[in-house]
Give the backbone structure.
Amino acid sequence: LSAWQLGLAPRAEVVFRRSRLELLRELIGMFPVWVRGAALAGAAAVILLVTLSIAGTRISLKDGDFAINFGRTGNSATGAPAISSKDIERMVQNAVAAEREGLERRYSAQLASLKDQLNADHQANLQAAKAENQARLKSFQAGLQQEMHRLNRQNTSIRSFFARDDSNDPWGDGR
């Protein structure tokens, strides 16, 4: 009997092929519960949005009013009346006039600022020129006074003053 026993006999195992659904379940089961919950919530939101989009749902939130319109009924979600071309043209003209007025105000303010700056610069230049001319005048006056002192020292007597020869003067009055 010992002749019939095999020492190393391979063990045969039958494995059935698993379906894709079972593979998906196993993959999802590997993630934590919170990830599975977030994925489920995201998928539900996407399905809801796609369904509402296909159904033609319009959701409007304007000035604190919340409105939902289902289907493609042709009703406007805002409920605003149609605007004529004359109204549009008038609105455009008013907007252009308002913008032009704003630009003119800004340019006027800039022009006034530039004028003030130029006046200040001009005043500074005038002050500098005045100071320079005053300095020249004072130096000229100082030079003139020195010359007068020098001449007065040379002509110490009144006789020498009257002794000058005025014969070159045709009028005789010292002009």
In short: The radius of gyration is 54 Å. The chain is about 60% helix and 5% strand.
